[in-house]
Amino acid sequence: MSSISNLSVQQLRKAATLKERIQSLEKELNQLLGSSVASAAAPAPKKKKFKMSAAAKAKISAAAKLRWAKVKGTAPAAAKVPAAKKTKGKMSAAAKAKLSAKLKAIWAARKAAKK
User: Fold this and answer.
1) Count of the separate structural domains present in the chain
2) At 47, phi and psi to the nearest 5?
3) Is there a domain that residue 25 lies in?
4) Residue 51 falls within a domain, yes or no?
5) Is residue 99 in some structural domain?
6) Is the pTM higher than 0.70?
7) I need a labelling partner for 13 at 20 to 30 A (CA). Which of 39, 61, 90, 110 fits?
């Protein structure tokens, strides 16, 4: 089969008309058979790539090393388990009260503006 760049304009036109004919015949065939072969020819939508955190990978690796150590009958070499994430700071009671009062004032102002 020759390269597209080596074809003449007339040959390219003929190829395009043949392709159109093939597509119309496929469409007609699909209508007769009631199948969705044309949809299979369409490119599938791209899937989102699953991303795993470094901590999760480390946990899986450590667990796998532990399992293999048990299978081999050897002691696991200090399996490193990543430290848990830091807990978020908690809001003090005074800060909660201040925020609550501020929000109540905002909502009261909005409610008054609607009237």
Assistant:
1) 1
2) -85, 150
3) yes
4) no
5) no
6) no
7) 39
